[in-house]
Write a structure and sequence with these properties.
The complex is a heterodimer. Chain A is an alpha/beta fold. Chain A has a single domain, classed as Dihydrofolate Reductase, subunit A (3-Layer(aba) Sandwich). Helix content of chain A is 16%, strand content 33%. Chain A has a seven-stranded mixed beta sheet. The longest helix of chain A has 11 residues, at 24-34. Chain A is globular and about 35 Å long. Chain B is 22% helix and 21% strand. Chain B has a six-stranded antiparallel beta sheet with strand order 2-9-8-7-4-3, sandwiched between helices. In chain B, strands 16-14-15-17 form a four-stranded mixed beta sheet. In chain B, strands 1-12-13 form a three-stranded antiparallel beta sheet, with no helix packed on it. In chain B, α1 runs parallel beside α2. The longest helix of chain B has 22 residues, at 212-233. Classes of the chains: A alpha/beta, B alpha+beta. The interface between A and B is medium-sized, with 17 and 18 residues.
Chain lengths: 138, 383
């Protein structure tokens, strides 16, 4: 599966059961990236996409377990460590900000298992610079 | 509109002043106190009417939370009337008259903040009105800031870069540098409500002396989160920052931060934290803000307002902050004087390095005092 996450400068993802931030341009980029492929997410994440999603979206609380090979998972409020072996590719959006966090992105991308394939910056609707990194398993 | 503003002053002082904060050593804010409303919105009368007629009345009459329900009417009255006693242990009245709770919380152990009351702020439901406003308490008799309170909306967020705030010297201020601190300066002029939220520049009622760590590691992430949420959604966030002073201390022990998004009733933003005014590796004397390098040598318990600490089994929790014996304190020098040119400089000004020793004199005091003595500020460092 291809996992999509968004983090702050300290690997944070959530604080007090709420996403640290959101941006409509980031959502557009995700949908552009996913294209016609299947996108898995849970009800919490579906909440911020509701008016923008098409039929290739699957909502389930165990969405990470259900996602198959080359299918996308947008993960906001889960630890990913236990799923690392199944992740073929990671798309990491960085807010380039520091927010409070109590749930962090917990895959070590500095390990030999991962290699950055590309990085690009774009302007968000409410963020000056969002960085998109694509990491592939070595 | 004038009448509306006056009503807003009264309403906000009632909501956010009288029933909000009694800092230690602070005087109780009264409706007669000078108002600090800097900006208002067009429908001020609506705010006031809603706050007074809906929130205020209903809150004082019957609205309670789980926490509040533990406080009987008698103890509430005692707390409201006993400001002296409250001052002695940093009693705070926050949010409304039914949420008067005095708590203590844990010592700083390396994290910039702790969660209070399971991250639930103590706003009354009726305070959640999607109309922007901002309020800054008058300084108390010691010159210290009090509660700051706002409903953040895009209409009051800044549209320009932040201006100069160097002319403000909050209580406990020292211009002092240490190796190993980001930017080297121990203290920042720390906005209670961040500039990116309400665009307040040199408002002395919104600036306290805060460590670099409290400012950047503690408060800024929360400010970022609120600012970006408001910009992205166009929604409002009710936001309150309360500086906590122990006794007559001039330096705050920390700040209590509460926030709740209005339109989605906290689904987007909801937090209630205490941020420590500490700097790792530096020992601070909170009485006057003086400091030195060193480890904590003793600890003092500080009582802090309003809430339970998350994951604590009961309400009896403590916070401790480092203190040292007075003789261990290295008092910071505010300015360097050149007795030959009658100029005064910040200690790190490049002119100081070129100054002859016989003309150099260290000075601890205020800018105004020096000007009154005939000294002029340096044109380079602009103290």
């Amino acid at each position: 599966m291809i996992v999509i996450v968004a983090t702050d400068d300290k690997q944070g993802m959530m604080f007090n059961n709420r996403r640290q931030s959101k941006d409509s341009e980031l959502r557009k980029d995700i949908l552009c990236e996913v294209g016609k492929c299947k996108l898995w997410l849970n009800a919490y994440s579906f909440g911020q996409f509701e008016e923008e999603l098409e039929k290739n979206v699957c909502v389930a609380e165990d969405f990470v377990d259900k996602a198959g090979a080359r299918e996308y998972c947008f993960v906001e409020n889960l630890s990913l460590q236990e799923y690392e072996e199944r992740i073929e590719e990671l798309i990491l959006y960085k807010w380039n900000r520091v927010y409070p966090s109590d749930l962090k992105f917990d895959i070590d991308l500095s390990s030999e298992s991962w290699q950055m394939a590309s990085t690009v910056d774009f302007v968000g609707s409410s963020h000056d610079k969002i960085t998109k990194e694509v990491w592939k398993r070595v | 509109m004038c009448r509306g503003i006056e009503k807003l002053k009264l309403g906000l002082l009632l909501v956010a002043g009288v029933v909000t904060l009694v800092g230690c050593g602070a005087e109780v804010s009264t409706p007669a106190a000078e108002s600090s409303v800097v900006k208002t919105v067009e429908d001020t009368e609506t705010i006031v009417e809603q706050m007074i007629e809906e929130s205020f009345v209903s809150v004082s009459e019957n609205e309670t939370t789980d926490i509040e329900s533990d406080i009987d009417n008698e103890s509430q009255v005692e707390l409201q009337d006993s400001t002296v006693a409250l001052s002695e242990e940093i009693g705070i009245i926050s949010g409304n008259v039914d949420t008067v709770i005095t708590e203590e919380f844990p010592a700083y152990v390396g994290e910039p903040f702790i969660v209070l009351n399971n991250n639930i702020p103590l706003f009354a439901e009726a305070e959640l009105i999607a109309t922007s406003f901002e309020y800054y308490s008058p300084l108390d008799s010691l010159g210290r800031c009090g509660v700051t309170y706002a409903c953040i909306g895009t209409d009051i967020m800044p549209t320009e870069e932040r201006g100069n705030i160097g002319q403000i010297k909050p209580t406990g201020w020292h211009t002092v540098k240490y190796e190993g601190i980001d930017g080297n300066y121990l203290y920042n002029r720390c906005h209670l409500i961040g500039y990116q939220l309400t665009g307040e520049n040199a408002n002395e009622q919104n600036l306290i002396t805060g460590t670099r760590s409290m400012n950047v590691d503690g408060m800024l992430p929360f400010e970022n989160m609120v600012a970006d949420y408001v910009k992205e959604t166009g929604n409002h966030v009710l936001y309150r920052v309360t500086p906590i002073f122990e006794g007559d201390n001039l330096l705050a022990t920390g700040v209590q931060m509460e926030a709740m998004s209005v339109e989605d009733e906290g689904a987007g933003i909801l937090f209630h934290v205490f941020v420590y005014n500490v700097q790792p590796g530096i020992v601070i004397n909170y009485a006057d803000g003086s400091s030195c390098v060193g480890e904590t040598v003793t600890q003092a318990t500080v009582t802090v307002p309003n809430a339970e600490v998350a994951d604590q089994p009961d309400n009896e929790v403590e916070v401790t902050t480092p203190v040292v014996e007075q003789q261990d304190i290295v008092v910071g020098t505010d300015y360097i004087l050149n007795t030959n040119t009658d100029k005064f400089h910040y200690p790190d000004c490049r002119s100081v390095k070129q100054m002859k020793a016989k003309n150099r004199k260290e000075y601890t005091g205020t800018r105004e005092e020096l000007i009154a003595q005939g000294y002029d500020p340096c044109g380079n460092c602009e103290p």
